[in-house]
Amino acid sequence: MMSQPSNGPAGQSDRDRYLLVLGSAAMDMWGELPQELQESLFERAVVLGHKSDRDESLREQLAKFLHDHHPRTQQTQGDKPSLVTGQATI
């Protein structure tokens, strides 16, 4: 059983800190995780993050974030399509 979060010197609860570092660790290791685990984590994040109508685009926002920050999917110079235009970059 988790104890009640305590506030640290910056006013951030221990729980918030732990969530932040666990999320950062997951992002850091994302490319090393099996695809099935990536998909499970992604779907869980969408469910946990969807709180109101304004979160309707959360799935797309998370997908773009992962695409932009994952080393295997980051856009590089060359003939990969541009995210903005869909055209090849030169």
Secondary-structure map:
Layout: H1 14-29, H2 35-49, H3 58-69
Helix pairs in contact: 2-3
Describe the structure.
This protein is 48% helix and 0% strand. Mean pLDDT is 75; it is low at 74-90. It has 90 residues and is mostly helical. The protein has a domain at 14-69. Helix 2 crosses helix 3. It has helices at 14-29, 35-49, 58-69. The protein is globular.
Explain briefly what this protein structure is.
With 90 residues, the chain is mainly alpha-helical.
Overall geometry comes to globular
Q: Main β-sheet, in a few words?
A: none
**What is the count of helical runs?**
3
Mean pLDDT: 75
Helix content class: 40-55%
Q: List SSEs in N-to-C order.
A: HHH
Distance linking N and C termini:
55 Å
- Poorly predicted runs are 74-90
What is the number of beta strands?
A: 0
Structural class: mainly alpha
Radius of gyration: 17 Å
Q: What share of the residues does DSSP label as strand, in percent?
A: under 5%
Features:
single chain; mainly alpha; 90 residues; disordered C terminus
